[in-house]
Amino acid sequence: MIWTILAITTLTVVSVKVFQRLTCGVCQSSARLDGKVTIVTGGTSGTGLETARGLAQRGARVIITTKSSRRGAAAVEEIIQTTGNTNVSSRLLDLASLQSVRQFSKIITKTEKRLDILINNASAFGLGNHVTKDGLQVGMQVNYFAPFLLTCLLLPLLKSSAPSRIINVSSIKHNYAVMDFDNLNMERYWSDILTYANSKLYLIMMTVELSRRLKDTGVTVNALHPGVSSSAIFKNIPNDAVRKVMEKSVGFMYQNPKEASQTTLHLAVTPEVETVSGQYFSNCRKAKPSKVSQDPLLSKQLWEETEKLVGFSLPDCSKL
Questions:
Q1: Is 29 in contact with 263 (CB distance < 8 Å)?
Q2: pLDDT tens digit sequence for 57-110
Q3: CATH of 25-311, one of 2.60.40.10, 3.90.480.20, 3.40.50.720, 1.20.1250.20
Q4: Is the four-CA dihedral 255, 253, 19, 176 of positive or negative sign?
Q5: For the residues of 281-294, what is the DSSP string, one character each?
Q6: DSSP 8-state class, residue 174
Q7: Which end of the chain has fewer CB atoms surrounding its CB within 10 Å, N or C?
Q8: Each residue of 67-82: pLDDT tens digit?
Q9: Are 259 and 24 in contact, with CB atoms under 8 Å apart?
């Protein structure tokens, strides 16, 4: 009996691994990004680091965000050494603080003449259930509310640099979300899993509404599922044993960070998607997200409620 179970388990693991290898999309574009300015949030490790590396290899000026100067410096040094592109830097950004988001955006607006690609990559799982100084549930703020505010604050620079691109890294886990306007900030009920799923759903809905608002501005916005990979997303799981098991099992069965960065790179560099907007991608091609994520009325309502929660209202994009 034990040997049968082991055989079935082994076969299942191998089958999943083979399936992942055969279906994993790869960015085929060799388009250069010389003269382009890009921002990758959470670019010090995992898929964010690989995304930043891919952009640097194509000649872009790459700015990665980090909460730690030490980790930022280490990531910048690694990217420079592996790509030969010295136009790479890091800036401090704490998504658990809307003041940090505002300060970061202010600095970027003052120091950068253009912004061609904004990649909202940073996210976290297992942050627990507490409220930040901004009155927002920490997981929802890091994964959704802060990226929302960051994007809105950088829109004038993105618009003046058009054609430009906004890329929101969502997840297939958005299919398990619960759309409840009475619980946007996890006030009524909470779980780590639901927080993560809801935040990823909201990113797609934000993409849908923002695409509508940015029509004819030359700024596009798309969302994506990067694939399941063993990345820094598990670092906040408090139980060491559970965290290590998750990292090892996912790392073996599914994609590595470089593989998981391919769809993000595809949306960032491929000429064929330059005018595509409001879409959801997986494995470097358009995919079908959940039905609720594509509802324009719900997306508009979510946008308006989010503006209230982050204390920022986006003006008419034609006047930015």
A1: no
A2: 999 999 999 999 999 999 999 999 999 999 999 999 999 999 999 999 999 999
A3: 3.40.50.720
A4: negative
A5: EETTEE----TGGG
A6: G
A7: N
A8: 999 999 999 999 999 9
A9: yes
Q: Give dist(CA 291, CA 179) in Å, integer.
A: 11
Specify whether 196 is catalytic: yes
Which residues, other chains included, contact 163 with Cβ-Cβ below 8 Å and sequence gap of 6+? Answer: 218, 219, 220, 274, 275
Are 106 and 152 spatial neighbours (Cβ–Cβ below 8 Å)? Answer: no
Give, as one character, the DSSP assignment of residue 169: E
> pTM for the complete prediction?
0.88
Q: Which residue has the tokens 């280490």?
A: 74
Cα–Cα dist 127/149, whole Å: 20
pLDDT digits 0-9 by tens, 254-284: 678 999 999 999 999 999 999 999 999 999 9
- Choice among 144, 176, 196, 202 that is catalytic: 196
As a whole number of angstroms, the distance between CA 59 and CA 36 comes to: 8
